[in-house]
Write a structure and sequence with these properties.
By secondary structure, the protein is mainly alpha-helical. The chain is 40% helix and 9% strand. The longest helix has 10 residues. The radius of gyration is 13 Å and the shape is globular. It holds the Pfam family YdaS_toxin.
């Protein structure tokens, strides 16, 4: 997880809170903060963050486009460009 995303997540949840919300241990969350975020947890974290963090920001290797993984109609700011996910892009 990059520093920019870490700061946004940490600004909303402590590692302990996030562990409770994601039904895991705080040690696992700490490991996620310092390495690749697990693919199986990406959408859950984005949902908890109310899509302020996008799947693309967490794992661009599996969500290569800024709107990949977003619910239809959501907007995101990614790499200085505005992306809108709608029926055309899904």
């Amino acid at each position: 997880m990059n520093d920019h995303v870490k700061k946004r997540v940490a600004g909303k949840f402590s590692q302990r809170e996030l562990a409770m919300l994601m039904s895991t241990k705080q040690q696992s969350v700490s490991r996620w903060f310092n390495s690749k975020f697990p693919a199986s947890r990406v959408l859950h974290l984005c949902q908890l963050m109310q899509w302020e963090v996008t799947p693309h920001e967490l794992r661009p290797d599996i969500y290569p486009n800024p709107t990949d993984g977003l619910p239809c109609g959501n907007k995101c700011m990614s790499n200085e460009s505005l992306a809108v996910n709608n029926d055309i892009h899904s």
